[in-house]
Write a structure and sequence with these properties.
Blueprint: H1 72-80, E1 102-103, H2 108-115, H3 118-133, H4 147-165, H5 179-196, H6 207-215, E2 225-226, H7 228-243, H8 252-274, E3 277-278, H9 293-301, H10 316-322, H11 327-338, H12 343-346, H13 348-353, H14 359-373, H15 378-381, E4 385-386, H16 396-410
Helix pairs in contact: 1-14, 3-8, 4-5, 4-8, 5-6, 6-7, 9-11, 9-14, 10-11
Length: 411
């Protein structure tokens, strides 16, 4: 039978007989029958959606565990990972054998080899030392600022001015404004002169290693993207300066509160002006589409704070009034401004972290997560560079295996 009509009229055309080939389907958004054209009392069904386009009421299925992504293996890896500890950065001594750094990581086996090396442990220990140096401190707190760090901040400010001098072009593409390539080319051309502004005379030849880390810190000019791998390159550049003795341990607080803050200002401007595409984003399951380190440094700042707790990120007044003093709050505020919709939907991981009872646990959890989610991921670390300052160590087992293979092959 036909479905009932609300207001049948004499002018309606006669309905064809109901057959298997003629059913009154109502898969349309109007309130009329698609076959006879008459009005119907049946409400229109919702619009169909595909597997790649979930319905509007979709909610990501996520575990209630705090600061853990949904993958079970990754959860377990983070839980079992010990909290990385700060290490002193050994300063190199002459003779120096600087060389052009190259890529060495191509597989998961290479990641395992890298993770077991002293290089990896010391580099991660340097990041932890930077985090510890800013613990309980506001960005505006007085600290030792060396002439070297003042020069580096000035260089980053110059790069910000380059953005103002190279406006984005009009284009239809949402991501990847082509003017970024012009900016990146100018930055790359100036990279070595920038290094020579602050390097001591006896290590000026280190530019062969420093420049590649520096130029890779601001995104990829071919893909016009930026992600945590590029951010790690900036940390590697700072680590190289520490290895050279150009940045000393007493400079660490200013390295975060002055240098890294200026770097973050530059990267946010590049992302907004040139619409850099997130590189290797975890989607809603990442902390942020592009950054990780400011969350580590920012959570360290807030450890033992009397009033602000992890749940304070949901207070807009706190974000507006204190984001200029605390990196973590600054990151949350930036995320809320550039992403639309409820915070728990577009940033569920950050929302989960807000339920952690104290900042100390947040900081230690983020350090473990950085090790697992960044430094143990082939898609990220395959672009990492190794030279003389950041050495690629071949484990003894690999050397012995290679020697045995050579002996057997020769026999």
């Amino acid at each position: 039978m036909e479905p009932p009509h609300d207001k049948p009229t004499q002018s309606l055309p006669p309905s064809p007989p109901t057959t298997a080939a003629h059913q009154h389907g109502h898969n349309n958004t109007t309130v009329t029958c698609i076959n006879c054209g008459g009005p119907t009392s049946f409400p229109p069904p919702p619009l169909p959606f595909s597997d790649t386009s979930p319905p509007p009421t979709y909610r990501p299925i996520r575990a209630p565990a705090v600061n853990l992504p949904p993958n079970t293996n990754t959860k377990q890896a983070i839980l079992l990972t010990p909290v990385p500890q700060a290490q002193k950065t050994p300063v190199v001594s002459p003779p120096c054998h600087f060389q052009t750094p190259t890529k060495r990581i191509h597989s998961q086996d290479d990641i395992v080899r890298f993770q077991s090396s002293a290089t990896c442990k010391n580099f991660l220990g340097f990041i932890v030392a930077l985090s510890d140096s800013i613990r309980g401190r506001k960005l505006s707190d007085p600290c030792h600022v060396s002439p070297t760090l003042t020069t580096i901040v000035s260089i980053l400010q110059t790069l910000i001015q380059f953005v103002d001098e190279i406006p984005p072009v009009q284009q239809s593409a949402r991501y990847g404004n082509l003017s970024y390539r012009a900016w990146h080319e100018r930055m790359s051309d100036k990279a070595e002169p920038f290094m020579l502004q602050f390097l001591p005379e006896d290590v000026r030849s280190a530019t062969v290693e420093l420049v590649p880390y520096f130029t890779d810190s601001f995104g990829n000019s071919s893909r016009i993207d930026y992600g945590t791998g590029h951010e790690t390159n900036f940390a590697a550049w700072l680590y190289c300066l520490a290895r050279l003795g150009v940045i000393k341990e007493k400079d660490y607080p200013a390295t975060v509160s002055r240098v890294f803050v200026k770097y973050l200002e530059l990267m946010r401007k590049l992302q907004l002006v040139y619409s850099l595409e997130p590189a290797g984003s975890h989607g809603v399951w990442g902390l942020d589409d592009c950054h990780f380190l400011p969350f580590i440094f920012g959570s360290s700042q807030l450890i033992d704070h009397k009033y602000m707790k992890p749940k304070s990120i949901h207070n807009d007044d706190i974000l507006e009034n204190f984001s200029n003093e605390y990196l973590y709050l600054s990151c949350i505020l930036f995320v809320k401004k550039v992403k639309k919709g409820p915070f728990a939907e577009h940033s569920p991981l950050l929302d989960d972290i807000s339920g952690v009872p104290n900042w100390n646990k947040v900081n230690s959890g983020l350090l473990k997560m950085y090790k697992v989610e960044v430094m143990e991921k082939v898609p990220i670390m395959q672009h990492f560079l190794f030279g003389w300052l950041i050495k690629w160590y071949v484990c003894r087992y690999f050397v012995i295996s290679w020697l045995v293979f050579c002996i057997l092959f020769a026999a």
